[in-house]
Amino acid sequence: MGYKSIVGALSGTSSIVKYSDDEKAWQIYTRWKNGKPKFAFKRKPDTIPYSDVIAYTTFVQTDEKNKGGYAAAGVGGLLFGPVGIVGGAILGRKTVETIKQLGFAIRTKGGDEYIIPLLYKPMGVQSDKIEAKTALGQLQKASAILDRNGTELLDDWQTDIDAWRN
């Protein structure tokens, strides 16, 4: 039946993740394999049997941003003068959660580690936007496949793409 895609090459993270329950294997291409990130345009995705994946972790880096109340300040200023500007700015301000990076990592019996970002936006993307929701759905799908095949989830395995960049 072939491989089904979780994430394709045009994802913005340069990662490709496919799986096949018939072949019981993953096909993975990521810049973050065993150390510093590197591009290799001619390198084909690695094929990894489900049984060779011994552990995985998930990672999400979030941040909160304050969205200004500029529009509310403008309306308040028009209606109530200087006091309305201050009141509108305070009342119009809201805090939104943003996601800077989201993905998963796997470790194989042979000792290879693959860091697979599904979303990487250093400035963040609002968690309620389609891009963030899509990446979260991809993460849930990958986690379900890993869990179904008995792969151990390691909560204490810390992963941060930014740390790999330096």
Keywords, please?
single chain; 166 residues; alpha+beta; PH-domain like; 4-stranded antiparallel sheet; 4 helices; elongated
Write a short abstract of this structure.
This protein is α+β, with helices and mostly antiparallel strands. The protein contains 4 helices and 9 strands; from the N terminus they run E-E-E-E-E-E-H-H-E-E-H-E-H.
CATH architecture: Roll
Number of helices: 4
Total tally of structural domains: 1
Largest sheet composition: 5 strands, mixed
Order of strands side by side in the largest beta sheet? Answer: 4-8-7-6-9
Low-confidence stretches: none
Helix content: 25-40%
State the end-to-end CA separation: 41 Å
Shape: elongated
Overall pLDDT metric: 81
The CATH class:
Mainly Beta
- Approximately what portion of the residues adopt beta-strand conformation? 35-45%
User: The CATH topology is what?
Assistant: PH-domain like
Structural class: alpha+beta
Give a written overview of the molecule:
A hairpin with a 4-residue loop joins β7 and β8. The strands form two sheets. Strands 4-8-7-6-9 form a five-stranded mixed β-sheet, covered by helices on one side. Strands 1-2-3-5 form a four-stranded antiparallel β-sheet, covered by helices on one side. The mean pLDDT is 81. Helix content is 28%, strand content 40%. The protein starts with a strand and ends with a helix. The longest helix has 19 residues. It has a single domain, classed as PH-domain like, CATH 2.30.29. The protein is of the alpha+beta class. α1 packs antiparallel against α2. The radius of gyration is 21 Å and the shape is elongated.
